[in-house]
Amino acid sequence: MRKLKRSARLVEMTQYLLSRPHTLIPLTTFAERYGSAKSSISEDLGIIKEVFEEEGLGELHTLAGAAGGVKYTPLVRQSDALQFVREFCRLLEQPERVLPGGYLYMSDLLGRPALLQQIGKMFATAFAGRELDVVMTVETKGIPLAYATASWLNVPVVIVRRDSRVTEGSAVSINYVSGSSKRIQTMSLARRALREQSNVLIIDDFMRAGGTIRGMMDLLQEFHANVQGVGVLVESADADEHLVDDYISLARLTGVDPRTREIRVSPGSYFKEADEQ
């Protein structure tokens, strides 16, 4: 128990909440931590709640009763999200990013922690109202996105492998059809990695036809799991058909000219979804 001035207590309480998103924290936790009355703690939380909402940091939800407490839900304001994605689109439109097949080089961007945290917070905002147990992705480039998203949702990450590994024990493997190349490929998931009937959020870095995501959805059926949402960083507009209908994308690749190396990227369905809510 530490006796702190109110200003110091507010700072530490704020940091405590920010580091524990989507976690119900009893008021007694703060009262015992700072040796303060619950009434004082409630007043402090009221101040923090007001600042969070004014600055677009998220929301504080208070639950009354003996089993109640306070929960922090990270959220990104629509205007801030749009400004971020427009800048992200400009980065993707750099001519040197063009790869064979109309793909974009994004590995350098996926190595920037600050950028990943913002992307993860946007996905956490989009799926904040859904019951989630894990975030799932397929190796390899989707992994940093999945961890960034899971950190804001405060849930574990499950990684689907391209092949089974001895170090992960027995696994469930399936064959799936790649949406772009139409090739038969394999993916697997360790049996111990996911409980049956889990609620899963799928996150991926790039989607053309959606074959990989559809493969993950089929794999989840083997675990009797429930797909609660699909988030894609960049979707391609040139697919003849999509194997996944219900998904949210942050950016949309609308055109690539290999000769002129002109790339056109626009904000994705994330903003359409937000406008309809």
Automatic annotation (TrEMBL):
InterPro entries linked to this entry: PRTase-like, PRTase_dom, Pur/Pyrimidine_PRTase, PuR_N, PurR_Bsub, WH-like_DNA-bd_sf, WH_DNA-bd_sf
Superkingdom of this protein's organism: Bacteria
Gene3D superfamilies: 3.40.50.2020, Winged helix-like DNA-binding domain superfamily/Winged helix DNA-binding domain
CDD domains xrefs: PRTases_typeI (cd06223)
SUPFAM superfamilies: PRTase-like, Winged helix' DNA-binding domain
Residue ranges constituting the Bacterial purine repressor N-terminal domain according to the UniProt record: 5-74
Pfam families the record matches: Pribosyltran, PuR_N
Residue span(s) of domain Phosphoribosyltransferase: 110-240
DNA-binding recorded as keyword: yes
Keyword annotations of the record: DNA-binding, Transcription, Transcription regulation
Quaternary context: Homodimer.
Family: Belongs to the purine/pyrimidine phosphoribosyltransferase family. PurR subfamily.
Protein name in UniProt: Pur operon repressor
